[in-house]
Amino acid sequence: MTAVTHWLDRAPGLGDLDGETRRQLEAIRPITIPKGHVLFRPGDEVTCFGVLIGGRVDVYLTGATGREILLYSITPGESCVQSTLGLLGENDYSAEAVAETDVEAVMIPKSLFLSLLGTSDAFRTFVFQAFAKRLQSVMQVLERVAFIRIEARLAAALLERADDSGLVRATHQELATAIGSVREVISRRLEILSKNGLVSLDRGTIQVVSRTGLAALLT
Fold first, then answer.
1. Which residue, among 46, 118, 119, has the nearest Cα to 85 in the 3D structure?
2. For the whole model, what pTM was predicted?
3. H/E stretch holding 53
4. Any residues with CB less than 8 A from the CB of 83 and at least 6 apart, and which?
5. Contact present, 98 and 39 (Cβ < 8 Å)
6. Are 101 and 55 in contact (CB under 8 A)?
7. Helix 81-89 and helix 110-119, axial crossing angle in degrees, nearest 10
8. Is 207 helix (H, G, I), strand (E, B) or coil?
9. Rounded to 5 degrees, what are φ and ψ at 95?
């Protein structure tokens, strides 16, 4: 008979918990969140700390003009800085989180989260190491938007999303959101890349023609 693996054993970073912390967390059952579901919006109260076991959640910040920027993605072993800040500082969410795939997650209630921070060294280490890693990624986003040319950001996004055949399955709006720009600017830059023979554009698709040419734009 095959033993059932508990969610704690599938959650990166939570393998060294003490017995009492593990006992309290084992009582929480994982939930399934469907692709496209909005986990929180600006102004929502932070009531729990989510631990992803499978899937990906993207967190977006929307400006007063409606322009969106992808702040970070959450995958297993990573944390949501918005949730951590909200739980520690009594602040509401200021961004929006969307399940980009079907997601399996565990939602630790606020009261238990705060209690474990004070009683479990291993849990506290997990939370703050994940928090520090997430802050570094947010700073990288800000650095890219502030200091890296849009051509370089777009080239990096295309190379990151291209499959083995060079096909990029992303709309102009999705690319704009990912690199902190707007759709019209991305469309114009893609036309330039197409004229230079680096990509080929068709309705709803982008084909990378020259990975080497795009890579040259990164420097």
1. 46
2. 0.69
3. strand 48-54
4. 46, 48, 49, 50, 93
5. yes
6. yes
7. 80
8. strand
9. -135, 180
Query: What does the pLDDT read at residue 201?
Result: 92
How would you classify the pairing of strands 48-54 and 199-202? Answer: unpaired
d(CA 172, CA 206): 9
pLDDT band at 2 (very low <50, low <70, confident <90, very high): very low
- Chain centroid to Cα 47, Å, comes to 20
Q: Is CATH 2.60.120.10 the classification given to domain 7-146?
A: yes
pLDDT tens sequence across 155-198: 999 999 999 999 998 889 889 888 888 888 899 999 999 999 99
- Which residues are 205's β-sheet partners? 202
Please check whether residue 92 is in contact with residue 43, taking contact to mean a CB–CB distance below 8 angstroms: yes
Sheet strands side by side (includes 57-62): 38-40, 96-99, 57-62, 68-74
The CATH architecture that domain 149-216 belongs to is Orthogonal Bundle (1.10)
| Residue extent(s) of CATH 2.60.120.10 domains in the chain | 7-146
Give 57-96 pLDDT, tens digit per residue.
999 888 777 778 888 899 998 889 899 999 999 899 999 9
